[in-house]
Structures
1.
Amino acid sequence: MDTRKAYATFLLGKTYIGHLFSRLAIWKRGQGYSAFKEKYRADNFFELTPEERKSFPNFQKCFNCGVCIPSCLFSVDLFHDELPDPESYACSLSRPLPDLWTASDNIYKCTCCAACEDVCPQGVPITKIVRFVRRKIEQIAPELVPYKVYMENIEKEQNIFGERPAPFVYTARQKPAYLLYMGCLYSTKERETGQKIVSLLDKANLDFTILKEETCCGRPIDINGNCSDGDLKRITEMNIKTIIAPCAQCYSSLKERLGDDLNILHITEFLSETKFKIKAKSNISYFDPCAGSGVGILYPEMAGGVAKERLKPFKEAGVEILLTECSYCLQNLRRGVSKKDKMKVYSLSEYLYMSEI
Ligand code: SF4
Ligand code: SF4
């Protein structure tokens, strides 16, 4: 054996024996992983949860076909120079993991509408990738999260606007069978519409109650995708089995977190079983909501641009009344209607209430 080989064997043996002895040091057990994490903290190294690890084979199925690109109204038609297209989300963000935080300039501009997912031949869950990246940025570089102020508001007043709204007016029931989950926008900025929705269900004699302090479902800031565990506990402790949500964002948020244990209904599902019917006196149409993702709050001008684009076909068709059933779509579509437009935008339940009185 030459000298170099002998020296290498000696080093290897020394390390191996050292490793065996180190395993005897019971008081140091379990510290290796912490030391590893500490060492790589500066490189923004992060952990994956077991669920996230399971998601990765799906995240990485993109084969760069580009089929999804034309489906993204936001990045292709409206803000081409400012935003990456869905293919770039799917390709670049599902691979170089430790660099995810570098996406923070753009990742909050995706509306998570899922139009790109609908056409992807590989079934790449692009919106899940976007939400995963947002979650990780919050963990590894919280200073880059643009909606810190909204999170602080939720912490203080349970809604993203930091307001403490007065309770809705309705008839209190003894043992309510339904919880009407109004969410923060209908409780604050779109309050007048919110009250009409509550009054409609009151008129329907629905056996319902409303949370004393309405809480944000968490979807508009979409970090963990939902309201805090404390809020969920508050809901489950009420022992009510069916929740009705008038807002599409609250509905999808609650369905994801509580859908296995509770019956979560969007208000349109409930209304379809009631006597209330649209009495169409004018040219009327419906805008079906997706679920949004905070873009309207963080980038209202961009969201307003999308609203104008979405409203074009309705205006061209001479629609006078446009209905929707999502507090955020309602707010944003109203941004896209000017005083000189003939069209008016209402929540579907609000419109039913107005037709009934
Ligand atoms: S989810 Fe919607 S906004 Fe986001 S990349 Fe896909 S199509 Fe574009
Ligand atoms: S995400 Fe799907 S549609 Fe888009 S480029 Fe990748 S494989 Fe093609």
2.
Amino acid sequence: MLASAVRDCAGAGWDIYELDLPEFDMTDSSRVDEVLELIGPEVIVNCAAYTNVDAAETDESLAMRVNGDGPANLAHAAKRLGATLVHISTDYVFDGLKTVPYLEEDPVAPQSVYGRTKLAGERAILESGLEKFFILRTSWLYGPGGKNFVEVIIRLATEREELRIIADQIGSPTYTVDLAEAIFNLLTTAPRAASPPHGIYHFSNEGQCSWYEFAEEIVSLAKEQGAQLKVQKILSIKTEEYPLPAQRPTYSVFSKAKYKAAAGATIPEWRESLQRYFSARA
Ligand SMILES: NC(=O)c1ccc[n+]([C@@H]2O[C@H](COP(=O)([O-])OP(=O)(O)OC[C@H]3O[C@@H](n4cnc5c(N)ncnc54)[C@H](OP(=O)(O)O)[C@@H]3O)[C@@H](O)[C@H]2O)c1
């Protein structure tokens, strides 16, 4: 999902090489070295991950290989080749117990296998000795070309009269197109900065909402666009009424001050970005 937005966002001047399973498995270090040496990239943007949060609970070893060993392999290759590594991480590295926005340096405490494996990926990059890297933690990602909450709600709203959506988890939706733009903002800012702004960043759309509020907005925009919906009622429920294998952070709003200062950029509010997504998919 994110990789296609990054590809589409790259302006003239970028030669993009898209690598994916099965021909490129980032857990295979010799394959990573072989392919990247052949390409000789200036930048490696890692959008790949084991992203099935609930399946990870019973598939820890594969999740750890992909989310921990994969980024480690990319970091070592980037260091050898003098390339910059951009890596995407997640709000799931935090416990979700804060009530004000998470800063990059806040203590991490993942509550799920997925969160622990993504944290292992971050740590592998930090420990690789690679200097030129950006780790962007993001949350509630949606965009074209992927299975995501927005598409799930639109589908359910066409199939069911009543939706029951969790209202006690608060976060910030993130449109892949905005995240892709943020990646390029950081990459193009770095060579001009007095001291290169490499490191960990938080990025999501501005504002916050519950999944329930997010779903309400999705249904309202789908209606405006003339979608034939069956849904009559959206009910707010509590997390414990919809048990899932992996624990989600209750609160995962990010402070984006570090990104905004480094990139000299503003970030669209989540409702505005959702509207742009609906216009694009119309
Ligand atoms: N989605 C969210 O809500 C969310 C929130 C916060 C952070 N993130 C992070 O954002 C990034 C992008 O997420 P996304 O939703 O765009 O992911 P996605 O659509 O699930 O895409 C992940 C891609 O990684 C590939 N992949 C899996 N294992 C691989 C391996 N060993 N080698 C090479 N490629 C492999 C997958 O291939 P297959 O499809 O063939 O398995 C898939 O194409 C990820 O790092 C994710 O952890 C996502």
